[in-house]
Amino acid sequence: MKKYYRVMLGAKSAYAALCHEHGFIGADYQIAQDLTADLSDNWRDFNQKYRPIFLVAHPDKTMIGAGLACGALWTVAKGLQKGDVVLCPNGSGTYFVGEVASDYFYVPGQPLPHRRSVNWLAHTILRDDMSDALKNSTGSIGTVSTITPHAVEIEKLLGVQINDPVLAASDPDIEDAAAFAMEKHLEDFLVKNWAQTELGKDYDIYAEDGEPVGQQYPTDTGPMDLLAVKKDKSELLVVELKRGKASDVVVGQVLRYMGFVKEDLAEPQQAVRGAIIALEDDLRIRRALAVTPSIQFFRYQISFKLLKA
After folding, report:
1. How far, in Å, are 87, 91, 155, 179 from residue 171 at the CA level?
2. What is the pLDDT of residues 199-227, one digit of tens each?
3. Which residue, among 25, 39, 31, 23, has the nearest Cα to 79 in the 3D structure?
4. DSSP class of 60
5. Is the pLDDT of residue 15 over 70?
6. pTM value?
């Protein structure tokens, strides 16, 4: 099954026109060497080799920033498969749309030297025509973001009728897609109002160069909803948001993310904790949390009012 990605082509889409004219997407990150020999299917191996190289070129960056950059570089070079669809903003409210057409190749001395050929479609997508959920997903920070859950909407915007039952399951009228949209809206609301929350008193959503990069931070077992850091930098916090009632399964999920953060991102002196945010809990999750004191549980409340005009 093909997947869908938003790919930024340089800071503020600086190279979007160049990429569209010459039929490619690419990335840079000031890693000036051919990556072909190191593009295994395990992006974690790639990160372990290239994070130190990235940090030499960017000594002001942290391990978290280096991990994010190398993860995005691997995704562009290896993670995208031939036939996957990319949406690339041009900086003026329009998204070029294309299909990945080649394996990785390296063009030294040129903008975005780590490249993949792309067959661009004649049809483009206007940001104004997107749903709020798709706008949020395509507007996320970072070079690459996964937007496959919006496949049906994207294809409809392109005027394509989808017959694939797997993709059809992501239609906005289907329950699972609605659940995804609800969780995404809650996540974006939490991010925008973080400072007013209980967690916001002690933690900040992780940022690099003033840009928040802690939302949907990639790990080797899937993206965590939020990565935050204590204001005194002594702790990293993994936050998982669940629509409705949380089950005890989420405890294991958070522990996996915490293990990744501890092994791959945390500085030697930094502790790692977790937080689960859901509408309600049950006996099973309370039992699981009773023996995992490093994870806290928070309930969210939704308030809805009608005000007479």
Report:
1. 19, 28, 11, 11
2. 999 999 998 777 778 888 888 778 889 99
3. 39
4. T
5. yes
6. 0.75
Cα separation values, 266 from 23, 62, 255, Å: 39, 10, 15
- Of 3-12, 25-34, 187-196, 282-291, minimum mean pLDDT range: 187-196
Compute the Cα dihedral for 140, 146, 149, 153 and give only its sign: positive
Instruction: Fill in the DSSP letter of residue 14.
Output: T
d(CA 191, CA 84): 29
Q: Any alpha helices (H) in the chain, and if so which ranges?
A: 16-22, 43-57, 63-74, 132-138, 151-157, 165-168, 175-192, 249-260, 283-290
CB 238 within 8 A of CB 244: no
CB proximity list for 135: less than 8 A, separation 6 or greater: 127
Q: How far apart, in whole angstroms, are the C-alpha atoms of residue 245 and residue 118?
A: 42
Strand stretches in the chain, DSSP E? 4-7, 24-27, 85-89, 94-100, 105-106, 114-120, 125-126, 144-146, 203-205, 207-208, 211-212, 215-217, 224-230, 235-241, 271-278, 295-299
Domains in the chain: ranges and CATH? 4-173 (3.10.590), 180-299 (3.40.1350.10)
The residues, any chain, with a CB within 8 Å of residue 243's CB and separated by 6 or more, are 179, 182, 183, 186, 278, 279
CA distance readout (Å), 68 to 129, 132, 142: 30, 25, 8
pLDDT in tens, 130-182: 998 888 888 877 788 888 989 999 999 998 654 454 444 444 433 344 444 55
